[in-house]
Structure formats: C-alpha cells, structure tokens
Amino acid sequence: MARIEHVALSMVALEPKVVRTDAIQSFERQETPFVTITDADGAVGTGYSYTIGTGGSSVMRLLADHLCPRLIGREADEIEAIWHDLEFATHATTIGAITSIALAAIDTALWDLRCRRADTPLWRLAGGARASAPCYTTEGGWLHIEPEALVEDALAARERGFTGSKVKIGKPTVSEDVARIAAMREAMGPGYEIMTDANQGFARDTARRRAEALRPFDLAWIEEPLAADDLAGHVELARATPIPIAVGESLYSIRHFADYAARGGASILQVDVGRIGGITPWLKVAHMAEAFDIAICPHFLMELHASLVCAVQNGRYVEYIPQLDEITATGLRIEGGRAHAPETPGLGIDWDSDAISARAIPEFTIEIREGA
Predict the structure, then answer these.
(1) What are 181-227's pLDDT values in tens digits?
(2) β pairing state of 338-340 and 132-137
(3) Which of 6, 168, 234, 340 is flagged as catalytic?
(4) Is 43 exposed, middle or buried, given 0-12, 13-18 or 19+ CB atoms closer than 10 A?
(5) What percent of the chain has pLDDT over 90?
(6) Which of 255, 285, 280 is nearest to 270 (CA)?
(7) Which residues are in the Mandelate racemase/muconate lactonizing enzyme C-terminal domain (predicted)?
C-alpha cells in the first residue's frame, strides 16, 4: 500500500457523435470530469464520470473544494473506507446526481490505481465471470429518427453481430410509438431483441396504455416508463404487463436499487457507474441483483461497463453508444457483436493524454498536493 500524494483534476466537453433525442430532452454534450491520483510509489490511476450537458462545473467544484483534498495522505488501496468517508463528508448533499458523479470520478481512479498496481485488468479483479458480453445498440434508435431509418440501422447492426437495438418511445400518440416498433419487428423478425426507452416520459395511465399497445411485439424491456422515483408506479406497471421493466440510469443509491428489487418494480437493473458513485457501489448493486435473479444491463459508458458486465455473473448486455473516441487512442474491441473486456491492467481505457489536455477547460484544471 502507498499513501496518496497528488490529485490532478480536469474536465473536457465532448459533442455527441449523432443527434440524440428522447422523450424529455436532447443530449447536448458529455461533460467529462477526470481525476488522476498518484501515490507515494509513483503509481497512477485515472478515473472519470460524466454529465449530459449541465452540472459539470458544480461537479468540479465539489471535487476540488471538498472531496479530493480529503484524499491526500490516505492509503490508496482502502477504497471501501475512502468511499464511505467521502459520502459521509457530503451527507448534506447526498443522495443526488452531483455528489454521485463526483464520487464516481474518484472511485474509478482508485480502482484503476488498484488494478494497475496488481497488474490485472478490471474485469478480472472485480470478479472475472467472462471475457466478453453481447452488445445492443442505442445509437440508431433516437426519438427523432423515422421508422425506415430505425430499421436500416438495426439491419446494419445485426450484420455486425449485434443481437438487439433500443428504440426510444414517447411520441405524442400511441399509434406513432406502435408504428415505430411494428416496423422494427416486421423487418427484424422474432429472433432480434427490441428494447424500448421512455426516459421517464409517461404518467401512470399513459405508461399502462403504451405497454398494452406494445405487448404484441415481444419487447426485451420498457426502460424508465415513469419518473425514476415513482417506485409504487413501477411496481403497479410491472404487475400489469408481461413486458420486463428496466430502471437504473436515474437512481443514485444502492438503497434505491434494493427497494426496486425487493418490491418487484423492475426485472432489469441498469446501474450506471457514473450515476451510482463509482465501481464500489456498482458491484454491490450487481451482487444484490443476483440474489433476486435480476439481470444487469448498465446504462451508457460502454468503455467502462464492458469490464464490469464481464466481471459479474448476472451481467447481460453492454449498451453500444460510442463517446470517447476523440480522447482515446484505441477504442473498445467489439467483434461479432460482443464487447471484449480489455486485458490491459486498470480500467483498460487507452486515454490519449494529448487530446485530453488540448480539450481541457482551463478553469477546471487543478492540482492538489499535501501542503499546497
């Protein structure tokens, strides 16, 4: 073990590769906070998280002013203790997105450091369940895309070996959503998975009506049909429809996930490292879900989630949304529609330091050292 001596902060903003719209918003940009931790032996770990366009400056101030100074002098390998100490230090602002996003950047850096010191890839150190996992694609299923283009993208994805596509729903009328999904099912046949995502866009009555209208199309799931904190509504909907319910990208605590699992509000959990507060709580949610026989299909961050889906027994899918190509030298290896967990020590993300430095926002490029 070695004490933490230095923490470097930076943030870059990445534009989406395609126009991304859903039932309630557009994905404007990925604000990407970075935390790089160096210990007394010179070992380095780099972590990150993200926003979808707002809040990045608040995350960076929380990191710089309150969280990262508490890392100096700590033993880097005591990840569990550090995570809980930092969460308690911000107990007045938890549980919520800003704190979880900040914690995630620190926690992923500590895991990267641990894996590098052990000369082991994350997927092995975190569990080692399998070396690869299937992908489904979201990138061609955004809400503004017409049915013909949805089908074209899904056909191309299947040619690459993908076994499913996600289609956004939440059009003004039931018939419009049905037309989108009907076109997909007719073109793709019964052997291809179709996931749908309402992005919290429905009220309870609307969600029930849409689920009933979509029942004939054998959907893999309906994602976030209701507001994420409407647990009772999700329980009610899950009892009313045979279509699996998926939640998780807008949950920020392991207790939220535990409530959904225990009460039957979801049968797919989409726990997101960047939203739950890092790898440490992510693994807890995944193992808890296994006890309920619930699959883990994490939201976004495919370059990181590939390793974690491969780490746990109940990891089912990696969501294909490429976003780090501009700041990485090599991307996630996807062959035959399967994401292969990186075998390099650490998170396995090949950061392009020059590209990150060139895009870093000067205001948030910060160094923290003992006595500084």
Answers:
(1) 999 999 999 999 999 999 999 999 999 999 999 999 999 999 999 99
(2) antiparallel
(3) 168
(4) middle
(5) 92
(6) 285
(7) 147-244
Q: State the Cα–Cα distance between residues 56 and 49, nearest whole angstrom.
A: 10
Q: Which of 6, 166, 256, 299 is catalytic?
A: 299
**pLDDT at residue 240 in the model:** 97
Average pLDDT rounded to a whole number, residues 247-272: 97
pLDDT at position 269 is 98
CA 354 and chain centroid, separation: 25
Active site residue 299: yes
**pLDDT (tens digit, 9 = 90+) per residue, 128-179?**
999 999 999 999 999 999 999 999 999 999 999 999 999 999 999 999 999 9
Picking from 216, 194, 206, the residue whose alpha carbon sits closest to that of residue 147 is 194
Rounded Cα distance between 143 and 170, Å, is 8
Note if 305 is an active site residue.
Answer: no
d(CA 309, CA 317) in angstroms, rounded, equals 7
Taking the CA of residue 224 as centre, how many other CA atoms within 13 Å lie in the half-sphere pointing to its CB? 23
**pLDDT value of residue 372:** 64
Domains of the chain by start residue, with CATH:
4-119+352-369 (3.30.390.10), 123-350 (3.20.20.120)
